[in-house]
Amino acid sequence: MKLSLENFLFDKRDHELLKMVQDVLNREGSRKNFNDLMNPYLNPHGIKEMAASQGFRIAHAMINLLHSLEIGKADDRLSALHTLRDEVMNITHSSLRRNTARVLLQIIKELVRQQGDQARQLELAHDFRMTVSGKPRLIRQELVRYHLLEMPEDWNQIAFDDHVHDANTKGRKTPTHLIMDAWIKGIRRLTVIYYNYVPAEAASELLKAGEIMGITIRIGVSVGAQFRGRNVRFIWVPRGFCDAKDFLSFLADSHVRAFMEEGCRVSEYQKSYVIDVLQEFNRKHRLTINEAFGIGLEPLETNDFLSFVAGGQASILHLSEFIHSRLLPLMNIRVSEIRRSVSQGKAEDRRQMEELVAKMNEFDSETVAVRYLAPVCNPSLPDPNIPRAEIDVPRLLMITPYELLERLDHLHSGYRICLNLSDLCVEDVLEMLYDCKGMITHLEIFNLKDHVDGKTSHYERISELQRAINEGNVITLKRMILDIRQQIEKSERPDREERCAKLTEILRNIPALQSHYRAVPLGSYIGSDSTGRSLHRYGMGLVIRETLTRRAQKAIRNTLGPKVFVLPIRMTVYLRTTFVPCAVSGVMKQWFQYLGNLLPGLKHFGEERRQDWEIKDNATRMETPGNIIPLGGLHEEGGNEFYLGDKQSQAKPGISWRY
């Protein structure tokens, strides 16, 4: 009866599309001829149109891309991405060509996620076929449904993210998938951060994928240094490369390769600490969890954990997710046992069982990390961020900020050095800016992950310091340094005298500090620090509200209203219009110039009009209300919720503004 109802409600082509999706996901060989048509060298308007409709070809290319999740298939992913872009960008019969393409890709992603739910997949297949028509009203409805902002068809919006991670560090997505998702959101500039070193294969895939989708890619290396007994992080972003090949040649340089090898040793040192934390969890915390929830989690194997990490860099984030993935099936069994006994129990027993289930609902991977994996929870293990003399520590972790930046300065002439402000106060930043003699070019003035975690209360004072340095006002800067010194003098800090002496030295050399940033001001980085894993943090992508279409701004203001999270930071932008002469013959060009001189209204007759947005220098500041909106909402999907009674465990519902 169900099959006949689906046949009645859905078109035959919906079933054909779904069959094709299932064939690709199951990697059946029955569609080999169709696979041959996905050759990127074939024109979408050529022989392909004779063999299959555009909707089928887009779906096939997208599913091929989504199916190649394993690291090590970069060529297959890039080929699928190239074919996919050719297909979706050749929808010429729609006035919303780019937005149509974004919606199509999002629908196919949802279709693959719903594998096993045939009724829902048929609905999505039908939506996909309808969306291929490119009708503006339908496209805008789908944008709202999938919580995507409408982007200008000129593709000139300022949408960016200066701090994201892929699967080669602690992120969830491969470089190609990261770029595809960024394009769906409308992001045009992306800075991908790697820890301690850059894998050449990852850099190659990332840069090539960015070229395919037209996204400007910057690759940053997060490196640490020792400052007053703790580890501080810098993001080194080499610049001035023509293409991916040029960047790979830079990585192959002997000096750069030697530095990256040192970074590999740092990563191995940090990996050994994570494994030690796993062993400590097996020895102590595992028993605590078993007792708290009445389950029987067995000791976890190191090899299983490393297989779970795959091509990434082992981190506490990976470990918490690995532990939670092993706990979840046991919790499901425990909830089933509770559900069977709750009907026969007393009221007091039921209340206790409800409390236990409530604790299970709150127990996610982040809870595991905070309660059991943090350094304070494992005092017997040496904190890797605080090197000790009795432990063999890589030299790269022991050097000062100035020594580190001096090494980076000799590796490449063009670069940006961004100071990560996590756990730093304004006097720390001031001291490092002074000691590093202008080699720090940017501050990560806003980190969305830290903001959600409540760790950005000090960012506003650091922003004021940045503004005082860039304005070149000696009086303002001197007053601020005096205030900082006065606060330290009143405190009970053990390093109070040393700090005050350093601030006095800076006061005597304010012109030297200002000279470092007189020609090139101290810039700002703004990033989400997204990994695509957290259930309680925003995804990647930020956009300046004024650069969106008027319709999108109106939707933000009227439809979404207070649901939209506007970052407390403001960037000043202005619209720039450029007139480009058309490629015409000399005689026609003279006629265009003659008509333009004859009639003022035809001054730019025969010229192409282009508009883009520019960010005003030194105009990024912390201010409420701001004008920057995150493109990714809270990742509420993916968690599990347990219930007593007849309800089964089910996924949490998504919230209104997410991606």
- Strands, total number: 15
Overall mean pLDDT: 82
Q: Tell the overall outline.
A: globular
Structural class: alpha/beta
Measured by DSSP, the beta-strand proportion falls in 5-15%
Major beta-sheet overview: 9 strands, mixed
What's the number of helices? 26
Extract low-pLDDT stretches. Answer: 28-34, 45-51, 634-640, 645-659
Overall radius of gyration: 28 Å
Strand order of the largest sheet: 7-6-5-4-3-2-1-8-13
Please, what is the oligomeric state? single chain
> What percent of the residues sit in helical stretches (DSSP H or I)?
40-55%
State the end-to-end CA separation.
Answer: 36 Å
Please characterize this protein's 3D structure.
The protein is an alpha/beta fold and 659 residues long. It contains 26 helices and 15 strands. It starts with a helix and ends in an 8-residue tail after the last strand.
Top keywords for this entry?
659 residues, alpha/beta, nine-stranded mixed β-sheet, two-stranded antiparallel ribbon, 26 helices, 15 strands, 12% strand, globular, disordered C terminus
Spell out the blueprint of helices and strands.
Layout: H1 2-9, H2 12-25, H3 32-36, H4 48-51, H5 54-67, H6 74-88, H7 97-113, H8 118-131, H9 136-145, E1 159-164, H10 175-185, E2 189-195, H11 200-213, E3 216-227, E4 230-238, H12 244-251, H13 254-293, H14 302-309, H15 316-342, H16 347-362, H17 365-373, H18 401-411, E5 415-419, H19 426-435, E6 442-447, H20 448-452, H21 459-471, H22 474-490, H23 496-508, H24 510-515, E7 523-527, E8 542-544, H25 550-560, E9 569-570, E10 573-581, H26 586-598, E11 607-615, E12 621-622, E13 628-630, E14 640-641, E15 650-651
